[in-house]
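Handout, section B. The chain below has 105 residues.
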Amino acid sequence: MFISQVPILIPLFIIGVAVFLAVVPIAMDPSPKYLIAVFFILTGVMVYIPFVYYKKQPKIIGRLILKTQLYGNKIPQTSLIAAQLTEWIQKLMEVVPVDSRSSVS
């Protein structure tokens, strides 16, 4: 496994530039559009931490995934569109692996 070592100044510089680019527009023109953007970013962080980082999943999500999978399998495969919809739902719910070759052409 290849691990590259980067001097600590490079990540610190990049973080500093990112913070600068995020803070300066808000400081120069504190309009609601920037505050809304910050709100969305913070909401994303609050969703990411419990559900992705700690891998917590509410019980209703599991039931929703199950019902969606069952719905996807009940669609009659009489048309190409129905087959593609079924495959799309299965890939969305991670039931089948996503690869470059699709079973539906």
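Note. The chain has a mean pLDDT of 78. Compare this with the example in section A.
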